[in-house]
Structures are given as structure tokens and as C-alpha cells.
Write a structure and sequence with these properties.
single chain, mainly alpha, about 75% helix, 2 helices, rod-shaped
């Protein structure tokens, strides 16, 4: 946008722009990044545990009944 042109921002675009600023500021915060990383790590550990348990059950040998 050049200096001679008027601003074409409407209320809707201002809301959208402010949302993006909020989103950026929220995730640029080191505390928020650490929390996000921790949640992803925990979720990954949980999924790996479920996968490991499924594999263990699939390869478990059954004991024949006497």
C-alpha cells in the first residue's frame, strides 16, 4: 500500500489482522512454546506406549488349557 492510497481495512479485516497478531504473540511466547512442546511430547509418548502394548499383545503366546 502506498502512502497516497487510503487504507482499505474494514472491520472484518481488522478483526482478522488482530487475530493473527494475537495468535503470533501467543505462540511466540517461550512459555507457550514450552507448554506446546510438552503436550506434543506427552501425546507422542502415549501413542508409542499404546503401539508397544498392541505389539506385545499381538506377539504374546497363548498358554494352552490343560
Amino acid at each position: 500500500m502506498s502512502a497516497n492510497q487510503p487504507s482499505t481495512l474494514t472491520a472484518a479485516t481488522l478483526d482478522q489482522v488482530s487475530y493473527y497478531y494475537y495468535y503470533y504473540e501467543a505462540f511466540a511466547d517461550p512459555t507457550a512454546q514450552a507448554r506446546n512442546d510438552a503436550q506434543r511430547s506427552y501425546a507422542g509418548q502415549y501413542l508409542r506406549r499404546l503401539r508397544r502394548l498392541r505389539e506385545r499383545d499381538r506377539h504374546a503366546t497363548t498358554v494352552p488349557e490343560a
